[in-house]
Amino acid sequence: MDYGDFIKLPDIREEFEEMFSRQRKYFKQKCSELGILKENLEAVSIKMAFISTDLYFSEIHRNQFGK
Fold first, then answer.
1. What's the CA gap between 7 and 16, in Å, rounded?
2. Mean pLDDT calculated for residue range 1-20
3. Beta carbons of 49 and 41 less than 8 angstroms apart
4. b vs e for 44-55, b when ≥16 Cβ sit within 10 Å of the residue's Cβ?
5. Which of 55, 48, 41, 58 is nearest to 23 (CA)?
């Protein structure tokens, strides 16, 4: 199964969205503490949350399907 199909599975999609939401809040707080400008705060937190969440699920996919 390729990663695109894997991430579309209902239970995986739900877990991805939950983790993304938690990560976004975490990175928003951390970026704010580091002094990232408010104008950039949302964009940076979304990008960082997506990257970290995607890496996590890519590793799960790789472990399950060996790709």
1. 8
2. 95
3. no
4. bbeebbeeebee
5. 48
Q: What is the pLDDT of residues 30-61, one digit of tens each?
A: 988 888 888 889 999 999 999 999 999 999 99
Pairwise CA distance, residues 21 & 29, whole Å: 13
Please, what is the end-to-end C-alpha distance for the chain in angstroms?
Answer: 9
Tokens matching residue 17: 């969205």
**Predicted TM-score of the model (pTM):** 0.87
Average pLDDT, integer, range 7-20: 96
| Residue among 21, 41, 23, 24 nearest 32 (CA) | 41
| Coil vs helix vs strand at 35 | coil
